[in-house]
Write a structure and sequence with these properties.
The structure holds 3 protein chains of 3 kinds.
Chain A: H1 2-5, E1 7-12, E2 24-30, E3 33-40, H2 48-52, H3 57-65, H4 72-87, H5 93-121, H6 125-146, E4 155-156, E5 159-160, H7 166-192, H8 194-200, H9 208-214, H10 218-222, H11 230-233, H12 254-277, E6 295-303, E7 306-314, E8 320-326, H13 328-333, H14 335-340, H15 348-354, H16 379-391
Antiparallel strand pairs in A: 1-2, 2-3, 4-5, 6-7, 7-8
Helix pairs in contact in A: 3-4, 4-5, 5-6, 5-12, 5-15, 6-7, 7-12
Chain B: H1 7-14, E1 38-40, H2 50-54, E2 60-66, E3 71-77, H3 86-90, E4 96-98, E5 114-117, H4 120-129
Antiparallel strand pairs in B: 1-4, 2-3, 3-5
Chain C: H1 2-8, H2 13-34, H3 44-54, H4 65-83, H5 100-120, H6 125-156, H7 161-170, H8 173-176, H9 178-191, H10 203-206, H11 217-241, H12 248-268, H13 274-303
Helix pairs in contact in C: 2-11, 2-12, 3-11, 4-5, 4-11, 5-6, 6-7, 6-9, 6-13, 7-11, 9-11, 11-12
Classes of the chains: A alpha+beta, B alpha+beta, C mainly alpha.
């Protein structure tokens, strides 16, 4: 037991059962209590932003869709909306409605998956298995609707690939009916099960002020009572015609993150039904030139995990000049080391899962340097570093 | 506040068949829209190469064997394909379609992944003009 | 000759290992079905064991090699020894003497103790945290579990397992000492480190806890020990609380019924934190079972 009195570091990752993707966390623990934490990201650096510069506008859509496996549609959507804005066209209303339907279906699958993952981190395997079993219904719907379970590739620049016919509408509505009943049941479980509440209530509480300070986005921020939802603040696709109700909860602990996400599920069911009932008629695609006019724009959408931000710059050719992606996990990740301090080691996976992290979204090159002196990498230095690295003499 | 909120699910499951799909033994039909293997109609193709330009994975190669008679050969790399269906959308002649029931395409032989479609005579001429890149054996 | 047979084949040795594997499979299968999954096939525990035994054992540097190798053996030996004193298969125990209940219980604890020591015998932080948790949990459930099993012994007036078993055949102690039964059942979950008491090996927190550095034979032996412990624990609780074990059929039916109860409990609960586990046992478990003991003693005092 002598080790208990010494402080030592528990490393979580890059390979760890709690993480499904690589990320590195170091928690200094005193017994079971965490006294210090640090995060290192960048293990999933694939150089996607740079790769976009050597592909044309159409090819990039499929590349960007693959930034994240869970929120693939929303990445392509953010990109398409940005490119359409640059080209000065907008997709027809029916296409926008279909985009919103797929985006909401994706949100449902993401939130149901999160419910399972968070339950798994708390050791509640039964809830994990059941929520994933029910998620499978939705995956089937997405497959029937779009043609793939994961990378839906529903978007085109200027529209969507497919229509929703009466058969598919019925399939969606039937699945939603089943899921609505199950979701209400899960809400009941996470708010009443005594053992599970012991792991969620009052754990990792983030106040609204703290959430603002850390710049949290998405359901994580909304669980702390910060009214922040791009679908409401700056409606895109069909959200202006089909308004979303803001889901808020103001406690900020893990339980309220469960409540917010489950309520968002119910809200998504309602919204999809509304869109399907009032589907605008018309074309599915608008004509977009292969070369996009010179200019730059930003595009913001609400991914399942929060605000997704795209900066797109065109030089008038058929390839983009620069594309910059900022994913919601990047914003939320800062809360993990802050909230983790003072908590039990056992709660750390839960706090980490609470922000619904997606490590592949954090496609960043990380430069680690010891010491406190500031360091700026100029373009020339970075280029030279790259050249030296590939010569094998960094 | 109660203990065992999932008791009803758990008890019900004891008398239910497992939800697991026994995939390789029991197969369910893929949905109509599933994006499976690409099919090409050589009669319709004009060899415009729009599909090649838009393919995000460089999975397609179009060879114009004879410009005058529009004899075209398409080389399709099954292993590079991401099944996004952009080529199907890009094709103005509707020469490309994706099948919904051919999706179990895995194999142990890499050579099988390069599919050359077209007339036998055209393919032969094309092979002379542009030989296949060597496929490394696993 | 008879002793050798008893130790190597029945009821010790091979029978125990095979039985332990079957019980583990039944447990996994039941949980899977409760979670609406298919679950493993019957030979999965055997396949796992064979695979682990065939694997290379990596011995980390900077630790005591002797302890690293000896601890799994001691753990399995402890579990196997304890089986000699319980009415396995509904038959009379191989060895029996006054006070063998205590010996059997401590032989079972040897496994947990060895796990804790094995975790402490590394420089890996997951193992150290796991070892601390294993031992902390041992100290929290051990006393209430022991007291819960002493309840029937007290009622039977003997601390000999076979005599308590005989006494239990005419008294369903499940109904006479319900609190003791519940504490024993939950204590068994703790002893076997099953959810919600799997904090010492919580994979999402500390990978495999004290077992993190073990691979190959050592891990196989620890796992075998755990399987045997499952079987012995089930036998013990079933014979004490579920009307005794008089014959093999009774044994199979009662232990499986108990296992079903354990599986349902496991699948219903999230993992408790180690501080919550300690709080639960000392705040409620120990007090409840002591209260029941007091009642038993008072009744005993008045009736005699």
């Amino acid at each position: 037991m002598s080790e208990k009195s010494e402080k030592f570091i528990v490393p979580i990752g890059p390979q760890h059962p709690a993480l499904k993707e690589p990320g590195h966390f170091e928690f200094t623990v005193d017994g079971e209590v965490v006294t210090g934490a640090s995060v290192r990201l960048g293990y999933a650096h694939r150089g996607i932003e740079k790769a976009t510069e050597s592909r044309n506008w159409t090819q990039n859509m499929y590349l960007l869709e693959r930034i994240c496996g869970i929120c693939s549609h929303i990445h392509a959507l953010a990109y398409c909306l940005g490119v359409e804005k640059l080209a000065g066209v907008s997709a027809p209303p029916r296409a926008q409605a279909i985009r919103s339907v797929v985006a909401e279906l994706e949100r449902i699958h993401s939130h149901l998956m999160w419910l399972g993952v968070a339950a798994h981190e708390a050791g509640f395997e039964t809830l994990f298995m059941y929520s994933w079993r029910d998620r499978e219904t939705l995956m089937d719907v997405l497959e029937a609707l779009t043609g793939n379970r994961v990378n839906y590739s529903a978007n085109l620049i200027g529209g969507v690939k497919f229509d929703i016919n009466a058969d598919q509408r019925d399939t969606i509505l039937r699945a939603l009916e089943f899921l609505e009943e199950r979701t209400a049941h899960y809400m009941d479980i996470v708010t009443t099960d005594v053992v599970f509440l012991r792991r969620t209530r009052g754990i990792g509480t983030t106040s609204a002020a703290q959430a603002e300070l850390l710049g949290l986005v998405g359901p994580t921020a909304r669980a702390s009572g910060v009214a922040r939802d791009v679908r409401i603040d700056a409606p895109y696709a069909a959200y202006a015609d089909f308004p979303v109700t803001l889901i808020l909860h103001n406690v900020g602990d893990l339980e309220s993150r469960f409540i917010v996400r489950i309520n968002e599920l119910l809200e998504s069911y309602r919204l999809i039904r509304q869109i399907l009932d009032h589907m605008p008629e018309g074309e599915l695609t608008a004509r977009v030139p292969r070369r996009i006019k010179e200019g730059e724009t930003i595009s913001r959408v609400e991914a399942p995990r929060g605000e997704l931000f795209y900066f797109i710059k065109s030089n008038g050719s058929d390839t983009p000049e620069r594309i910059k992606v900022r994913t919601p996990t990047m914003c939320n990740m800062a809360s993990v080391p802050v909230l983790g301090i003072g908590q039990q080691l056992a709660d750390i996976p839960m706090i980490l899962a609470g922000i619904d992290p997606c490590f592949s979204c954090n496609d960043r090159a990380a430069v680690i340097h010891q010491g406190d002196d500031g360091d700026t990498w100029t373009w020339e230095r970075l280029r030279q570093y790259g050249i030296d690295y590939y010569r094998g003499q960094p | 506040m109660r203990m065992g909120a999932m008791l009803t699910d758990v008890i019900r499951a004891l008398f239910q068949r497992p939800a697991t799909r026994q995939y390789p033994f029991v197969r369910t039909d893929a949905p109509e829209r599933l994006r499976g293997r690409l099919h090409w109609d050589g009669e319709k193709c004009t060899g415009c190469s729009l599909c090649v330009k838009d393919c995000p994975a460089q999975a397609l190669e179009v060879f114009m064997v004879d410009k005058a008679t529009k004899r075209v050969v398409l080389r399709y790399h099954l292993d590079r394909c991401t099944y996004c269906a952009q080529c199907v959308v890009s094709c103005r002649q509707s020469a490309l379609t994706m099948s919904h029931d051919e999706w179990e395409l895995a194999d142990t032989d890499k050579v099988l992944f390069t599919i050359t479609c077209g007339d036998d005579a055209d393919v032969q001429r094309m092979e002379e003009l542009a030989p296949k890149d060597a496929v490394e054996q696993p | 000759m008879r002793e050798l047979f008893a130790i190597l084949f029945f009821p010790g040795g091979l029978f125990l290992l095979a039985g332990g594997m079957m019980y583990e499979w039944a447990d996994h299968k039941l949980i899977a079905r409760l979670q609406n999954r298919v679950g493993p096939r019957w030979f999965q525990p055997l396949a796992d064991t064979v695979k682990l035994l065939a694997k290379e054992e990596v011995i980390p540097s900077g630790i005591s090699t002797f302890l690293f190798i000896a601890l799994p053996i001691a753990a399995l030996a402890g579990a196997l020894t304890s089986a000699l004193y319980v009415p396995l298969g509904g038959l009379a125990p191989t060895y029996s003497f006054h006070g063998d209940l205590i010996v059997a219980l401590y032989m079972l604890s040897l496994l947990t103790l060895c796990t804790g020591l094995a975790g402490s015998n590394t420089t890996d932080s997951f193992s150290l945290v796991g070892a601390t948790r294993t031992l902390t949990q041992l100290f929290s459930y051990e006393a209430p579990f022991l007291v819960a099993l002493l309840g029937p012994a007290l009622a039977a007036g003997s601390w000999q397992i076979s005599e308590v078993n005989t006494y239990a055949q005419s008294h369903w102690l499940l109904f006479l000492q319900p609190i003791g039964f519940i504490v024993a059942l939950i204590g068994l979950l703790g002893k076997l480190e099953m959810p919600p008491f799997d904090s010492p090996e919580a994979e999402t927190e500390i990978v495999a806890g004290a077992m993190t550095e073990y691979s190959g034979r050592g891990l196989a032996l620890f796992h075998l020990g755990r399987k045997v412990e499952l079987m012995v624990g089930l036998t013990l609780v079933a014979s004490f609380y579920l009307g005794g074990l008089g014959n093999p059929i009774e044994f199979v039916v009662k232990t499986l019924a108990l296992l079903l109860g354990l599986s349902v409990l496991q699948s219903l609960m999230a993992r408790l934190r180690i501080d919550q586990i300690v709080g639960l046992w000392w705040r409620y478990g120990a007090l409840l079972v002591l209260a029941q003991w007091l009642v038993l003693m008072l009744i005993g005092g008045f009736t005699s």
